[in-house]
Each structure stands twice: as C-alpha cells, then as structure tokens.
Write a structure and sequence with these properties.
By secondary structure, the chain is an alpha/beta fold. Helices cover 39% and strands 8% of the residues.
C-alpha cells in the first residue's frame, strides 16, 4: 500500500465521520494507523464559522453569567472574554461531521471534506517539490565560492573546481540557479557565453529561494499573531505586472487607513523585492519602518520566498513579521487586490512599465490615495495614513496630497506634455 492517502481513503474517512464511527474503526477500514487518520483530520479540516441566523454569535464561556452577554464587545475589547471550545472539536474526532447539533451550534465549527482535503494536500505536495533544494546558509557559502570567479570571467566549472568535492549541489544545478536569476551576487550577464546563446523556447521556471519559507508563517499563524497583537499595523504585499519579463510594481497596502504605495522593480525576482524593502527602510528610518510595517501578509510567489531577509535589517535585527496566504487564496488579502483596480485605471493590463520612473509611480499613487472612499465615510486614505503615522513618513514614501478637483485616474495622467 502506498505511503500517501488516496482520494478513496479520504472519502472513507469522511463517510466514517458522518456515521460517527471511532477513529480506530475508520483507520482499520482503510488499512492505516489511528494516528495517521487523526493527523489527517486535524491537518485537513476546514473552518465553517458562518454565523447562525437568529442566534447571538457569542462564544464566551461567561456568556450565561455576564449581564452584558447580548452586547459583548468580543475578544479584542473584553478582558474577561474566554472562547468556549466544543469537546468534539478539541478532542477526537476533531470535526463536526455527524454531529446532530451542528446546524444550531454557535461555537467554532470544523468539517472534514474529502475532495477539498485531497486537493489541499496535492497542492502542498506540489509546492514542497518546487524551488531550490538548498538551505539559506548553504546558498550563502556557495555564493562566496562561485560569484568571485564568475565576475572575473571564469566559467562556473573553473570557479568551483577546487571546492568541487565539498559542493552541496551538482555543477549542473548551479548553472540552473544562475539561469533562474537573483540567487547569486554574480549575474548571468557575467557569463559571456551564456548571454550569447539563444534562449530556448518555453516558460521560464522560477525557484523559491527558501522552500521552507511558509513554516511558522502560514495564514493560520497570521490569524493567531494578529489576535494577540490586535493593534499591529497590517500591510498586504503584492506585485502588479506590466509587460512579461519587464519592470513591475511592488505594492504595499496599509489595511487600516486603506493607503497603498507602489515601488518600481526592475524585474520579478526575490532579490529585487528584498532590495526595495531595504530602500524603504532607509527612506523612512528603521524605527518608523518597524511601526508602519509591523505585519506583512503576502501570497506564495517566488518573489516573496526569502522572508528572513525581508524581516531583518543589515544588522540582523527583526523589523517586521512576514506571513503567507493559503495557496490559491489571494482573497485573504482582498483589500490589496481591490485597490489595484485604481492603479489599473491609469496603467491598464498589458501596459509596459519599462518607460516609467519612480516619480511617475509616486504621482499615480498620490492621485489614488487622495481619492475619497465611500466605505470610509468619504475620508481620503492619504489623510488617514497621516493621522496614524505623521506627515514626515508620508512624504518620505513619496505621496503628495492632491486636491479633489485635480484628481485624475486615467492613462492621460502620465502623458508627457
């Protein structure tokens, strides 16, 4: 029998849970250990926390003894709030499948869906098999060996000849890392023969710099961290693509004031993102950066796959925390995605960013952030950001206030006179 659970086995687990069978009986039926089945249920269960119609959604353990139970401000405001957890969810079987009370229960609910669990597992398995299979320390050591020789005009073979027996990867793999770009100090442009070769047809494959970057940084970890740090400044990070292979925009959306900045990147690589983050630190100062970008939520793109270098400055001091959305769930940073609509009014899809400068991008974002938002009672993001972090920080980020009568969100904004 194979090592991985199949879809049929997961369906058998779901059927067993809905029939209220013990985990041992389910495990015996599919030929797996009870521990394997229990781990599968806990890891692949899904939250279904929609409120129940006609019921007060108050999960505090003290709700029956508290005089303010009907107007409870919730976990973020009440010091006595303690969430009650159902024993069925806390202990085996860990899900609400087969529970007769699940349609009326107001407590946190979890269900196990075989098809969704199998898809999530396959996606995770595919993601683990992608990227550069090398630790960050090994890559740094390899860079010290390879890059000096390549910069001097040597081939990769000659650069690593003396250390060949100590290399953590094969010589062919090093060539592939160079082709990927952004992994070494030396560039592919330093390889004269490689640049003279005609590129092969086909999609360029990008590699993650750190294949374990999601460990301790999942969306569940993000929810837990923000629950403990409710006043933290949350920023959603993403890329806006222009012409494929050309310049792109790194966007940072500050959720609370609905304020967004964009920084022009030369390419879509992890090193470009890291360099731009360091540039923002220098613009606003280390202390201001740690205040305005305390928590960063982003997607699973290869350009964001080196979180430790984003989180720390040159001295190794932690300035922020980086977390990732679940795979194929960019809706978890929906505010950032929706704000891109304003950028696309000026820079429609298919527009090349190669002719833009950072001054052009700042001009676009100044108009976008000066645009009043109905959902904020017609307040302007530029004003809300300034209330929270001050005028000096706003100006350091290159954002000006534009009068309402002068705001333009059309491509004509960047047309040269």
């Amino acid at each position: 029998m194979g090592k991985h659970l199949t879809l049929d086995q997961r369906i058998a687990i779901q059927v067993g849970l809905e029939r209220n069978q013990p985990i041992k009986a389910i495990a015996r039926g599919i030929g797996k250990s009870p521990r394997t089945v229990a781990r599968e249920i806990k890891q692949r269960r899904q939250s279904c926390d929609e409120p129940r119609y006609g019921r007060v959604d108050n999960r505090c353990e003290h709700r029956y003894r508290c005089p303010e139970w009907a107007r409870c401000p919730g976990a973020k405001s009440c010091a006595r709030y303690v969430e009650e957890r159902c024993p069925t969810v806390r202990n085996a079987p860990f899900v609400c499948n087969g529970c007769a009370k699940q349609n009326k229960c107001i407590l946190a609910r979890f269900v196990y869906n075989a098809k969704k669990a199998d898809k999530t597992y396959r996606d995770t398995l595919r993601e683990k098999r992608e990227g550069a299979n090398i630790e960050e320390e090994e890559l740094a050591w390899l860079d010290q060996i390879v890059s000096p020789g390549v910069i001097k005009g040597q081939s990769i073979h000659n650069a690593v000849l003396k250390q060949r027996m100590r290399l953590p990867v094969s010589e062919r793999t090093i060539y592939r890392y160079f082709k990927t770009g952004g992994m070494f100090t030396a560039l592919r442009a330093n390889q004269r023969r490689a640049c003279s070769l005609k590129p092969r047809q086909g999609k360029r494959r990008e590699h993650k710099l750190d294949t374990k970057c999601r460990e301790g940084r999942t969306y569940g970890d993000y929810r837990a961290y923000t629950a403990e740090h409710s006043l933290a400044s949350i920023v959603q990070m993403d890329l806006v693509i222009g012409r494929i292979g050309g310049k792109c925009l790194l966007t940072l959306h500050f959720v609370r004031p609905c304020f967004q900045i964009a920084r022009l990147l030369p390419d879509k690589t992890a090193q470009s993102v890291i360099d731009e983050i360091k540039r923002i630190v220098r613009l606003v100062g280390r202390h201001a950066f740690a205040k305005i970008l305390e928590v960063i939520l982003t997607d699973n793109g290869t350009e964001f796959s080196d979180p430790s270098k984003i989180e720390k400055d040159e001295q190794g001091r932690t300035l922020c925390r980086v977390f990732y959305c679940d795979p194929y769930n960019t809706n978890q940073k929906a505010q950032c995605e929706r704000n891109h609509e304003y950028i696309r009014m000026v820079l429609p899809k298919g527009t090349s960013f190669d002719g833009l400068t950072q001054a052009d991008v700042d001009k676009v974002m100044s108009h976008v952030n000066s645009y009043a938002r109905p959902k904020m009672d017609d307040a302007r993001p530029v004003d809300e950001f300034e209330k929270l972090f001050g005028e000096r920080t706003r100006l350091a980020l290159g954002i000006r206030k534009i009068d309402a009568s002068e705001i333009m969100l059309r491509p004509e904004l960047l047309k040269r006179p």
